[in-house]
Amino acid sequence: MNDAELMENLRARPSMYGLDGTYYPTATYLLGMDQALSGGLLRGFDEWLAVRRGEYSGLGWVTRVLKDAVPDLDIEGPRTLSGLTAEQNQRAVAELFSLVLEFLRVRNDRRALSDMYVQHRSLCPWES
């Protein structure tokens, strides 16, 4: 099973992986998977998100994905992540899997990945 197939399985059957379909546990699970793979699953995801939006951000992907999915949400810290409504959780989880699957297509294409890193470098304030 490749990474994209695993993401599709996680999205379709979260309870099979001990998840309840809400955003914070799902994002935490992906962070753990990434750590277990020495950063190989989501290496470049933060950079790709910056390029996708056309702006550098110091926020981590967990917060950035949530802000994109639920733009009206006032993020004040970890309590915000556990206090989402059912509809907000559904939107955030859908956005997360959509973005990760899109990213994996770029990550698996060496030319696209290289281009993404070049674009990201141009967004970095310390590279100007």
List the helices and strands and how they pair.
Layout: H1 3-12, H2 23-36, H3 45-53, H4 61-69, H5 78-82, H6 86-107, H7 110-123
Helix pairs in contact: 1-6, 2-6, 3-7, 4-6
Description:
It is a single chain. The chain is mostly helical and 128 residues long. The protein has one domain. The chain contains seven helices and no strands. α1 packs antiparallel against α6. The model has no long low-confidence stretch (mean pLDDT 91).
Q: Short summary of the structure?
A:
With 128 residues, the protein is mostly helical.
What labels would you give this structure?
mainly alpha
Could you give the distance between the termini? 41 Å
- Described by the principal axes of the CA atoms, the overall outline is globular
| Average pLDDT | 91
> Uncertain regions: pLDDT < 50 for 5+ in a row?
none
What Rg do the Cα atoms give? 15 Å
Task: Profile the largest sheet.
Answer: none
Number of domains: 1
DSSP strand count:
0
Q: What percent strand?
A: under 5%
- Sequence of secondary-structure elements: HHHHHHH
Helical content, roughly? 55-70%
